[in-house]
Amino acid sequence: MSAQKLVSGEYDFGLNLSYDESSKMLTGYFENYTGLDEQTQNSKFSCIFYIEGKVTGEKFSIKTYYPEDKEDDIILGTIEITNNKTIKIKLPEEHGGCWNVQHFADKPEQFELEKKSNWIQVRYLDKNKSFFFKENSNLSKTKMYLIKNDIVYVEKIENGKAFCSYKGKKIIKGWINIDDLNKL
Predict the structure, then answer these.
(1) Are 130 and 116 in contact (CB under 8 A)?
(2) Is-contact 75 91, C-beta < 8 A?
(3) Which of 23, 60, 168, 176 could pair covalently with 56 via S-S, beta carbons 3.0-4.6 A apart?
């Protein structure tokens, strides 16, 4: 029987995962909302956390936390690779707000791959501001930038820069300084 493999991409219910085959590192981001505030027309509840871990088999340990609160919000859990399109996440307790959106502590939550990608990392901006570059060169700075805690999807890393995409109102792709991203 062949081993199940983690696949980078967009999973259902707001889960994005990346797997770097060379380092065996998993990084990801979960963001989902529920309930409607009739006055503001915004969601009432949110469940947001970053995920990182080293893939050591079909079931392995992960660290989860809210990006702005890495030191005080860490919850250790597990990911189980069910098959090449399905994973399960289990946490011993809920992140703030998650109990209103999606329960991770009651039982393992299952996620199905919806769109495969070539991401090698999911990271977030650790600096207050970071500009995109058109090329892997400091001479090609654009007017577009990211702000602290924005999530990016890294496709490759070369010469101190990461080629990545940011999903805002539209998808922006370009190079940013790797030192401006969270440390793994």
Answers:
(1) no
(2) yes
(3) 60
Query: Which residues is 161 bridged to in the sheet?
Result: 158, 177
CA–centroid distance for 72 within its chain: 19
* Strand boundaries in the chain, DSSP class E: 9-11, 15-20, 25-37, 42-54, 59-65, 75-83, 86-90, 109-116, 121-124, 129-133, 141-147, 151-158, 161-167, 171-177
Which of 35-49, 69-83, 129-143, 162-176 is the least confident region? 35-49
Is 60 exceeded by the pLDDT of residue 1?
no
The order of strands in the sheet holding 121-124 is: 121-124, 151-158, 161-167, 171-177, 129-133, 141-147
Which three-class secondary structure state does DSSP give residue 178? helix
Report the C-alpha gap between 8 and 78 in whole angstroms: 17
Tens digits of residue pLDDT in 112-165? 999 999 999 999 999 999 999 999 998 999 999 999 999 999 999 999 999 999
Nearest of 163, 170, 50 to residue 178 by alpha carbon: 163
